[in-house]
């Protein structure tokens, strides 16, 4: 793809901002136990989103291997969306900001909302042992519900072995249906990574057990609980949990997995059960629904204040001190002092970001239809800084090179 000099400069400043802002996903990072971190002091003014910067980040995701990308921002001036590239490499259909896609681990935030509603209903306690609800499931009675939701259980992530070889790993499970118990057994066949509660270590196993808790305590499949507690309540017409069905119905983006071998053709990974993920990663949604979900969550529409406080009380996930995890919820601290809450997702063929400010008044959802290409994911994460922090003042160096933002594109209404 060829970029104009203006674009190239915008891309590189956006990427730099993303790196400085520490927006690389915190996959599997260890961190020493740390005291809970209160939310950063809020900004007093609300910057307008820099949509040029958002588009530059989407283009950068494409320049780094994504066939297409989209973003949708909501704020005081309404919704604005942008889409670049294609949603289908065969038909050439353009990416569409309304398209549905697989949201991977953003599913963990949906699962957390359901479980925290069950805490509100006094059906379980956050600091009770998991084994008191699922007797004999885990090999250590000290592992609590909170340890699962904060990734501090020490239960190994079975997906590390499963996807050690990207395409063979994916093809081996693409059409499989696992039971929750089978996934837990895969984890328990490996050594535990930490003592309970001692360190943050991201693991899909934690949210598989969250799904088991939801099903045990409600007597219903997780799909029914997502539906009645979140999807119907918020009117999310593009959000579904169809496991073990493999199709994404309606207008959707196709997902393209990068093989490990350089130069090998992309694998169309759209149709899959995502049974390896289930309550840790199998939902489908679109940008508008993700905006509504994170806004409503942070805005207090899904949980009572005490539970929302528990969910947004975070500890650092790495040494940068800009990335944190609460209960099934990430917090990223941006360069302008704004903290945003939400989740990231990686599922074969799709990278997702879904974040909102603490007051729920601004939100951003973004997707690139590729995966196993970390640079594309990092580039996509570059949408957060321009969306929530606005335009950066041009540096002396960029001014000398004629760098400027294009005011004509900065505030267009939503399109596509
Ligand atoms: S990984 C993450 C992200 N989370 C975790 C979960 C999710 N997704 C997975 O566990 C899928 C892992 C395999 C994905 C695959 C690819 O890129 O499509 N990679 C390979 O096969 C590599 N050999 C922590 C990044 C999150 O952001 O929370 O979603």
Summarize the structure.
The protein has helices at 5-20, 51-63, 106-120, 145-149, 159-162, 166-173, 180-188, 204-218, 222-234, 287-298, 305-312, 374-381, 384-389, 396-400, 407-410, and strands at residues 68-75, 78-85, 100-102, 256-257, 267-268, 284-286, 315-316, 323-325, 330-333, 339-347, 350-357, 363-368, 370-371. The protein is built from 15 helices and 13 strands. It is an alpha+beta fold and 416 residues long.
Could you give the topology of this structure?
Blueprint: H1 5-20, H2 51-63, E1 68-75, E2 78-85, E3 100-102, H3 106-120, H4 145-149, H5 159-162, H6 166-173, H7 180-188, H8 204-218, H9 222-234, E4 256-257, E5 267-268, E6 284-286, H10 287-298, H11 305-312, E7 315-316, E8 323-325, E9 330-333, E10 339-347, E11 350-357, E12 363-368, E13 370-371, H12 374-381, H13 384-389, H14 396-400, H15 407-410
Parallel strand pairs: 4-13
Antiparallel strand pairs: 1-2, 1-12, 3-6, 4-5, 7-8, 8-9, 9-10, 10-11, 11-12
Bound molecules: ligand HEL.
Shape, principal axes of CA atoms: globular
Query: What is the CA–CA distance across the termini?
Result: 22 Å
Helix content: 25-40%
Strand order of the largest sheet: 2-1-12-11-10-9-8-7
The number of helical elements comes to: 15
Provide the β-strand percentage band.
5-15%
**Distinct bound molecules:** ligand HEL
Order of helices and strands: HHEEEHHHHHHHEEEHHEEEEEEEHHHH
Instruction: Please describe the biggest sheet, giving its number of strands, its sense, and whether it closes into a barrel.
Output: 8 strands, antiparallel
Count of beta strands = 13
Category by helix and strand content? alpha+beta
Q: How large, in whole angstroms, is the Cα Rg?
A: 20 Å
**Would you identify the regions where 5 or more consecutive residues have pLDDT less than 50?**
1-35, 398-416
The pLDDT mean sits at 88
